[in-house]
């Protein structure tokens, strides 16, 4: 027995404290002596009033109570004791023998009844019996209380666990689940009990999750751990990530069956464990992972992920014998917009561009942001070049419409280089590099277009470095030459103009053509210096011829987009022209439509400035670029140069020639001069004459030649190439 377990210590056996109440002093005394002799701690109360007063101040385990007393009777004392000391047992010792009095006393809570006069032994036996019962009851209450406390403590600990705590039977039905399941997933523990845990597994994890407990080797030392997604309750259909650890239940230590929260299969609990919510960790991991492989601004795959996918696609293409395409996309005019409107607008533009580009591709394609305004696109399975061409056109067209950035309407274009596997590269690096090289060729040709990589574009890195070094030396050593190709009046056969075309007299490789070194000059920005040299030389040569009797002779010079886009373009050009005293009215600059459209506003301003100084403007390769006719009458344009490809088409019949017809008719309508390029045959010349195209240029009259040759021929009639 453990009396300290009670709130008010109970006096067991001989140490029990007994209150004896009677209005007869003699009887009171006898009773008290009898009990004291047995070792009880006895307090005497002479009458009911005294008894109530004692009960207010002292604790008793038992009261021996006379019923019939004046003023405050036994029933009143019982009522008072019930109030102030409900644990105190009562034995009625009374002369009252009526059934109703006895029954009333017992109903009011008396534990026994002894009739006066009493037999001392019987009385002591009754007292002992009642005290024994009392202490048993008390002990039971204590045990009960301890159990309840212990149960509450364990329940508190289990329910306060940050994890879901569960027990499952052999089939995987819940036997128990703590209330954490409600705050984490929204289920009531009672609704889960008896249900299979599959019920809360996310559909994607049902198979893996269901088999997780099937393994034979789950032991206390080798618990089963797995990560699964669990469904939350309700219509949100959200899932959260959990790390589950399941241990086997030892039937020796937990031999109980069934559910502890209602329902249940009645089977033995087989597993117990915890499910820890790791959603935040998983989301953080997913974010870190996303960040490592994606560009956060556009949310596109980054360079690393692109390379990874390309590597896989190449392996697959090799196995299946299929082709794949890599495109390198570089935005035109992005830098200007970014510098003018600020980086925030630049970022918005990149997002909007991404959005449009994404709409042009299929699910299996990979569009990535390679850096800055560069994107790469992988088309993992194409049939032929035509497939890639269609996509490239789609991408270019998708960016044609203006972008609205706040109050600003801006235009961007895109230059696309395409490398097809396996022709344009066997491995990942080659393909990306070659697509990049092809893209540079688009840029050099006036941007906003696409080109397929071809071997002629490639100069490997070592060659590239050598070539760059050689080109710098060429500028120092004055190895660049300016050749001139005549522009001839088709009716008089007289030379009306000369197009300056650069050549490089390489000390080892001989005469090099622009295609061999201009892309590199553009890339390395040597184009500026190179163009200055060409212009200086051409102004000197042609200026001399003008002064020596050919006052109307026109000098046509090609300009690189990089030159035109330079903020000090007009100033620099005019400085050189004036330095050579070259008449501005004899100078015609050739630019492509794409250069104009790249930055219509800026370029128009520059062209107007030049035109106001007398410089003529020619649109080179007309018909191959934007072909946005709108700018023609808004800009000070003097000449349209019909591209060679249209002139070549003349020989293939009427269909091929119809573009030339249209361009010439339009030029007449707009009162523009027209020069047909690439004229090689009589047939082409006749056709053009017939159309009223009065100026022609091409091998028919001869290729571009050095100044010395031109000098000799000037004034002569170059009827055929041989005479020029
Ligand atoms: N920025 C600068 N660009 C320049 C300069 N010099 C040349 N270029 C650009 O290089 C392109 C190629 O020039 P080139 O190899 O000299 O070819 C020119 C002619 O040789 C060629 N042509 C002329 N007639 C015919 C012909 O009958 N058939 C035929 N197959 N080819 C012919 O065409 C080129 C001239 O074309 P265009 O410029 O369109 O008038 C050249 O296109 C320039 O863009 C330079 O100094 N700076």
Key traits:
724 residues, Beta-Lactamase, Alpha-Beta Plaits, 25 helices, 43% helix, disordered N terminus
Explain this structure:
By secondary structure, this protein is α/β, with parallel strands linked by helices. The protein folds into four domains: 3-143, Rossmann fold (3-Layer(aba) Sandwich), CATH 3.40.50.2300; 161-284, Beta-Lactamase, CATH 3.30.450; 296-458, Alpha-Beta Plaits (2-Layer Sandwich), CATH 3.30.70.270; 462-712, EAL domain (TIM Barrel, Alpha-Beta Barrel), CATH 3.20.20.450. Helix content is 43%, strand content 22%. It contains 25 helices and 27 strands. The strands form five sheets. An eight-stranded mixed β-barrel has the order 18-19-21-22-23-24-25-26, surrounded by four helices. α2 packs parallel to α3 (74-84). The longest helix has 41 residues, at 120-160. It starts with 16 loop residues before the first strand and ends in an 11-residue tail after the last helix. It binds ligand LFPHGCPZ. Residues 485, 499-502, 513-515, 518, 531, 534, 558-560, 620-621, 641, 644, 677-680, 697-699, 703-704 line the site of ligand LFPHGCPZ. It catalyses: 3',3'-c-di-GMP + H2O = 5'-phosphoguanylyl(3'->5')guanosine + H(+). Keywords: c-di-GMP, Kinase, Phosphoprotein, Transferase. Its cofactor is Mg(2+). Residues 150-202 form the PAS domain.
